[in-house]
Amino acid sequence: MSTTHPLVEEILGGESYELRVLAAQGILPLPPAELIPLQVHLADADDAFLADAARSSLASLDPRIVSVYLAADAPVEVLRYFATRQHDSTLLEPILSRRDVPRELLVELAPKLPADLQELLLLRQDAILERPEILDSLADNPRLSPYSRRRIAEYREHLLPRASRAAAVAVSSEQFFPQDEELSEEEQVELERIRRAAAGGDVDRTTGLSEHQIRALTVPLRLRLAQGASRTLRAILIKDSNTSVALAVLQRSAFTDDEIEQLAASRAVVDDVLLAIAKRREWTARYGVCLNLARNPRIPIGIAIKCLPRLSVRDLRLLGRDRNISDAVRSTAQRLYRIKVD
């Protein structure tokens, strides 16, 4: 393990057994970014006392603190430790979301994930393109949900190249189909046909295609467009009737906060897009996203109700009168409104 703190270097040097014990027990004055990797290192020590103390201390850490560290700074060995030795969803979620998480770790985790984390893994289309065996591993999950089973079938049909699984490894997430030389002969013919078709709707400058032409593309070509899509292209693809395409652009393009707020209120996107937004904490942490999800009648009742406690008295009062939302959400908003004003 790498470190810059002199105390950690001294412990790793092994000169003071007492310091190693204190580190294993987690009672040294070190920040989590220094202490947690040190404890993970000691958890595999040959000394049984040190190893047991480190494992016990790591197991007792506040998952909220650990999850923040795992999401940003944790090295691979720490990700692997918490992924394989602890099964708290609070800790697994940031690991699955890390862009640099080792793909083999995702393969290893896939057959053990609960239903909610299966959905999170299926959002990692970048990783699935690199390692299609993630889908095979997930399919072996004894707790595989009906939703995950359906998504796996869709990915195998549309996301992965039809020629072979092996070819999917060569498909880089940077590929972008306007570079026509990267297309297969069949795809080039299809693209040329679409370019000659009648235009209609907004035109995306990066491709030169209109909304009407983009919607006429095959699913594999629309999936290619999802990577790093322009704002115009994002607005078109996010409303795609094919769930794989809509989720791909949500996962693989940089949406602004304002765009996410608008999507949370949209009734024109597939339901899975709304569910994906509701599962991302950095998005639901925004008040506007939370409010729009709560008053969107297409959101499952349970998700809408979870958003209500964060809302202001004014918005609770308005939701309590909104006849466009479900009775359960409206009555819960009324109850919370009365609690807050009393």
What report would you give on this structure?
The structure is a single chain. Strand 1 and strand 2 form a beta hairpin. This protein is 63% helix and 1% strand. The protein is mainly α and 342 residues long. It has a two-stranded antiparallel ribbon with strand order 1-2. Among the domains are: 80 residues, no CATH class; 88 residues. The protein has 25 helices and 2 strands. About 6% of the residues have low confidence. The relative contact order is 0.05.
Describe the structure using short key phrases:
342 residues, mainly alpha, two-stranded antiparallel sheet, 25 helices, 1% strand
Dominant shape:
globular
Give the strand tally: 2
Sheet with the most strands: spatial strand order = 1-2
Mean pLDDT: 85
The total count of helices amounts to 25
Q: How many angstroms separate the termini? A: 55 Å
Largest sheet: 2 strands, antiparallel
Stretches with pLDDT under 50, minimum 5 residues = 162-181
- Following the backbone from N to C, one meets helices and strands in this order, namely HHHHHHHHHHHHHHEEHHHHHHHHHHH
Backbone CA Rg: 24 Å
The percentage of residues in β strands lies in under 5%
Structural class: mainly alpha
Percent of residues in helices: 55-70%
